[in-house]
Amino acid sequence: xxxxxxxxxxxxLSAPQGGIVIVHFFATWCETCGPELHALQRLQSDFGSCxxxxxxxVGEPADRIRRYFQTFPARPRIGLDADRSVxxxxxxxxxxxxFVLDHSLAPLWQAIGDVPWDEAAVRQRLSKAGGTGQxxxxxxxxxxxxxxGKCHDH
Amino acid sequence: MTIxxxxxxxxxxxxALAPALPTRLRAEPTFAPTPGKWRTFEITTTVSLAxxxxxxxxxxxxxxxxxxxxxxxxxxxxxxxxxAAVTRDPTSGxxxxxxxxxxxxxxxxxxxxxxxxxxxxxxLQPADAAALDAGQKQRYTASTExxxxxxITKETxxxxxxxxxxxxxxxRRIYEWIIxxxxxxxxxxxxxxxxxxxxxxxxxxxxxxxxxxxxxVGLARAAGLPARxxxxxxxxxxxxxxxxxxxxxxxxxxxxxxxxxxxLEGIGWVPADPADVRKVVLEEPPGNLSLTxxxxxxxxxxxxxxxxxxxxxxxxxxxxxxxxSSGPSIPFxxxxxxxxxxxxxxxxxxxxxxxxxxxxxxxx
Lengths: 154, 364
Fold this sequence. Notes:
- The structure holds two protein chains of two kinds.
- Chain A contains four helices and seven strands.
- Chain A has helices spanning 33-47, 62-68, 85-89, 120-128, and strands spanning 2-3, 11-12, 20-26, 51-58, 78-81, 97-101, 107-112.
- In chain A, the strands form two sheets. Chain A has a five-stranded mixed beta sheet. Chain A has a two-stranded antiparallel sheet with strand order 1-2.
- In chain A, a hairpin with a 5-residue loop joins β6 and β7 (107-112).
- Chain B has helices spanning 5-17, 134-139, 152-161, 167-181, 196-202, 209-222, 274-283, 294-302, 350-353, and strands at residues 39-49, 56-60, 70-78, 83-88, 95-100, 107-117, 120-121, 183-184, 206-207, 227-234, 256-264, 268-272, 306-307, 311-315, 337-340, 343-344, 355-363.
- By secondary structure, chain B is α+β, with helices and mostly antiparallel strands.
- In chain B, the strands form five sheets. In chain B, strands 4-5-2-15-16 form a five-stranded antiparallel beta sheet, with no helix packed on it. A four-stranded antiparallel beta sheet of chain B has the order 3-6-1-17.
- Chain B is built from nine helices and 17 strands.
- In chain B, α4 runs antiparallel to α6 (209-222), α4 (167-181) runs parallel beside α7 and α7 (274-283) packs antiparallel against α8 (294-302).
- The chains are: A alpha/beta, B alpha+beta.
- Chains A and B meet through α2 of A and α5 and β16 of B.
């Protein structure tokens, strides 16, 4: 998968060094998408390089997407699926939709609708799949990276 | 002339008491569009883009023709620095004004179009209406990017029309199904997206006209009935007093509305607007009416087979490729479109775009 980005070079799905990949489809008109995008940003912050998140807007003009992210503290990189061809290829028929892939890009789960990425149960599942995240409890820090800077495989 | 004082007093008394009368004693709302006089309208779209880095725009202009109710007229335009020309979508015949501005120049244009229209009421009895030719039949029963007719759409259509003795019954059953099972969602941006497969798979049947009437067209096509969406804009108030079914000011920038038609052998194209029935439910004062409210019942009875043409049909196009654009096709052409080096501009945000649309009647 390779698609144009809202800004910068094209976004290409490629196997990471370790950890997991989340491919997330959204649109600005979707009510639950905003909170979920914030949650994905928190997940990225906590999991660091152990998770690669690819965020794809489906079928919307660029300036609408830019305006939408003006209220976000930071704008993630956004893939543009302007003609919906990527969503079609992935079998996405509802937004938001998310796919969790392992480090070899084999699919682990698909979620139709919003996912509570902040919830401990979801994060544990992601950690077991290879995206070992830092604990949100500062008294129990766990590094997601090994000595070589690679994500732990589970 | 002598005024009969008793009649004046009686009239005043009747009006004062009207709200207190039980519903069954009040006059039922009248909603009976019939083909009458042709009305001529003028619609003006002004575009003034903030980005002056070399941009282009496409403005829909009237191009849908139906000899008995919609006749597009002349389109003229004025622009200081743009180069503009009328172009037609080769597949659908939808017309648009394509304008390009050189970098650094003010990106302004005013487009004025005229059209004539009159109300519709189709007699729902088999007669001698001309049949569609093979090309038309193929076009109006085909899938489009967002009207995917196989899978859940076909299954749903078959369930709805199962056992219907005629095409007219099938068309009406789908109309009633849309009204009974969908709702107008006020949070939907613009007129909606129109992805009917997503609506059916998720079970979220809320939306606006581009969703609900697209669902009608898709289900009709999936049931084997030629059907089409007509994309347009409201231009005048309802003559029947429906505040929700008219343009109540001269500014109609956000008054876009799309309707549906289904083709029945012997009868011809039949108007159907279930989305407007759901609009009456949600918006007709005092709002959130029940399906058994007199205003809703009157709209429901009327809007299969008839409609009030206080509205312009621009075109019936799907999957329109904008000439000169490297971007994707658009699902339908109902709003002005524009693009800059940074990409497409949001047509659902006229204040940022920016564009305005106004309408006036030239002859009543």
